[in-house]
Specification:
- By secondary structure, the protein is α/β, with parallel strands linked by helices.
- Helices cover 45% and strands 21% of the residues.
- It is built from ten helices and seven strands.
- Strands 3-2-1-4-5-7-6 form a seven-stranded mixed β-sheet, with helices on both faces.
- Helix 1 crosses helix 9 and helix 9 packs antiparallel against helix 10.
- The relative contact order is 0.16.
- Bound molecules: S-adenosylmethionine.
- The site of S-adenosylmethionine has 19 residues, from strand 2.
Length: 260
């Protein structure tokens, strides 16, 4: 139901995270993308980052997402930006895709696949059971000196217990910015860049969802999912105002293997 809620709440969003379009573009520049490079985006949502990067930098890309709503939107966006010949969107479970790819890449010289120049997972580190597990999933897919781009939440200050509980984060799910650095380093990565959402764009990401969801509820009062969608709107709006906007930050971390 959480996925269904986001499919409804983010129907009018292009970027399904708190970064602005300008920051998604800046992230492509930070990564130093060049024409012909290959980018894999795990849990790509509506594919906005891949399509923009393909249009601006001439990269090729593969995006994987589980949502039957976001995947067609991603394909349409690639068409709209004139990059559908270079951006392939697959519907599937990202961890399974990454593991299959790793198996293929381990196949040696006869392998059908090549490692990617950049592997991203922006705002979906649950696919690997947390940051460390997701970095493990991503690692085989990237070339030795390639970049990993990970979007992740972090605590901006020590949260009270009720914030942790309300935001449904386990005690170890999220850490501070220095704690995030520790997790990256323990996984064998050097943090070489970072792009953080600010409070205003966090609010825009969240509050625009309230409007879209409220409109959906008015248009679908008899929908069998309406009660649950209303409950999720009510709790997520209150949680954002009470805790999320104060205690939780959101950023994208650019990593390279320490031994690269
Ligand atoms: C917060 S959104 C981020 C989307 C995109 N990376 C972006 O920043 O615009 C999380 C995405 O993860 C996708 N997702 C959730 N679980 C997934 C899974 N197990 N495998 C693939 N995609 C998944 C959702 O459909 C959604 O598009």
């Amino acid at each position: 139901m959480t996925l269904r809620y986001h499919e409804i709440a983010e129907a009018r969003h292009r970027i399904l995270n708190p970064l602005t379009e300008a920051k998604v573009d800046l992230l492509g520049e930070i990564c130093g993308l060049t024409p012909g490079q290959r980018v894999l985006d795990l849990a790509c949502g509506k594919g906005e980052m891949l399509a923009r990067w393909a249009a601006a930098h001439g990269v090729r890309g593969v995006g994987v997402d589980i949502s039957e709503v976001f995947v067609p939107a991603a394909r349409s966006r690639a068409e709209e930006l004139g990059v559908a010949d270079r951006v392939r969107i697959e519907r599937g479970e990202a961890a399974a895709f990454a593991r299959d790819l790793a198996g293929d890449l381990a196949g040696g010289p006869g392998a059908r696949e090549e490692p990617y120049d950049v592997v991203a997972c922006v705002g979906a580190t649950w696919i690997g059971g947390g940051l460390a597990g997701t970095l493990d999933l991503m690692r085989p897919a990237v070339r030795d000196d390639g970049l990993l781009v990970v979007g992740e939440v972090y605590w901006t200050e020590e949260p009270p217990a009720e914030a942790v509980e309300s935001l449904r984060l386990g005690p170890g799910d999220c850490t501070s910015l220095p704690g995030t650095l520790d997790r990256c380093e323990e996984a064998g990565y050097e943090l070489i860049e970072m792009l953080l959402a600010d409070g205003d764009s966090w609010d825009r990401y969240a509050a625009a969802q309230w409007h879209t969801t409220s409109d959906w509820l008015r248009a679908h009062p008899e929908d069998p999912e309406a009660d649950e969608i209303r409950r999720l709107l009510t709790t997520s709006r209150r949680d954002h105002l009470a805790y999320q906007r104060r205690y939780l930050g959101w950023g994208v971390f650019v990593l390279r293997a320490q031994d690269a």
